[in-house]
Specification:
heterodimer, A: 113 residues, mainly beta, 6-stranded mixed beta sheet, 3-stranded antiparallel beta sheet, globular, B: 120 residues, 7-stranded mixed beta sheet, 4-stranded antiparallel beta sheet, 50% strand
Amino acid sequence: QSVLTQPPSVSGAPGQRVTISCTGSSSNIGAGYDVHWYQQLPGTAPKLLIYGNSNRPSGVPDRFSGSKSGTSASLAITGLQAEDEADYYCQSYDSSLSGSAAVFGGGTQLTVL
Amino acid sequence: EVQLVESGGVVVQPGGSLRLSCAASGFTFDDYTMHWVRQAPGKGLEWVSLISWDGGSTYYADSVKGRFTISRDNSKNSLYLQMNSLRTEDTALYYCAKDLGQENPSFDYWGQGTLVTVSS
């Protein structure tokens, strides 16, 4: 059971817009900690997609955007392309856990129809 | 170009030990906190451990606390994970990851991973 909750799967047709939600609690997202998003293409290592809730690293297309409100965050992908088919993970920090715990969502598999 | 190259993953019996290594290049290694993150086959990502830039602070997930030890050698631009008392549930692809450098953990570069299989 992941600390952050994501839908197991989402899908969309090429050109469409999809969103992936990430729901946390008052000890992580709701406490004001930043949310980061990672894209994992099949058979590869994760790649940072969005950091600090809504910032894109250099080289990430502006079709990808992130937002945060309350205890939740969302990743939006517009102009869906076949190459976007991947697993997406949200990540934050949780103050209720021992140590300096980074926490992940369970991941969402995006299928481009 | 930032590169992180993990090594050391093998098949090991339950109760055994293993040391993973991560060779870093393309950035000033001793400026950054470093992490290990693992992914069990067909499963999601799980943060394992972090070490501060100077090795002075280390943290662990509860699932590995007391069994795993993270360390680094800044003179060799290398990160390590000593894994003891291994369990079948430790079977995973282990990634070395560089911290973005913000207030709380996040990961801007990842290695390709090294596979640890714990099985009798």
